[in-house]
Amino acid sequence: MSEILIAVDLSSQSETLISTGVELARKMNAPVTLFSVVEIGIGIGLPEAGPVFTDDIPSRISEVEGILQQYKSRYPDADIKVLVATGNAKSEILDQTHAGETAMLVVGTHGRTGLNHMLVGSTAEYIIRHARIPVLVVPYNQEEH
Questions:
Q1: 3 state SS of 136
Q2: How far apart (Å, rounded) are the C-alpha atoms in residues 109 and 135?
Q3: What is the pLDDT of residue 40?
Q4: Spatial contact of 60 and 52, defined as CB atoms under 8 Å apart
Q5: DSSP 8-class letter at 61
């Protein structure tokens, strides 16, 4: 069975996105990949994180993997793997989506920017326009959308 890729930015709203994606995967009897990108020179998606410099990359990757493993541990009955890439979030998410057996991509509307007036974040909007598979966009503030 093809997988569901859940792309998270590790913002405070990632739990909502992950729980939605895992529930969908359960209904589809599909495995899940929790995916995040360490963005070089921008930060790792954590609001408190600063730029990632070359010397910091291995430690940032380990930090992100650890956070994703914590999320994974909340769903012991689900078939979940963790994957971290480095680079530009938009292109890395699309590359990962198109490279394997991904049946559906799950993304959030916005996380790192926190701009309440935006309905769809720039990364999600880009992915929607360029993905060749179905994309489920989960609003982070579901009460407001």
A1: strand
A2: 11
A3: 79
A4: yes
A5: H
In the numeric block, which tokens belong to residue 144? 């407001």
Locate tokens 């009460």: which residue?
A: 143
In whole angstroms, give the CA distance from residue 84 to residue 89.
Answer: 11
36 falls within a domain:
yes
Instruction: For residue 102, give its domain range.
Output: 3-138
Residue 118, token pair as written in the block: 């935006």
Rounded CA separation 4/47 (Å): 26
Q: pLDDT (tens digit, 9 = 90+) per residue, 93-102? A: 999 999 988 9
145 found inside a domain: no
Which range, of 53-62, 106-115, 126-135, averages the lowest pLDDT? 106-115
Count of structural domains within the chain = 1
Determine contact, residues 35/18, Cβ cutoff 8 Å. Answer: no
CATH of the domain at 51: 3.40.50.620
Q: Tell me the pTM.
A: 0.83
Q: What is the pLDDT of residues 116-126, one digit of tens each?
A: 434 445 888 89
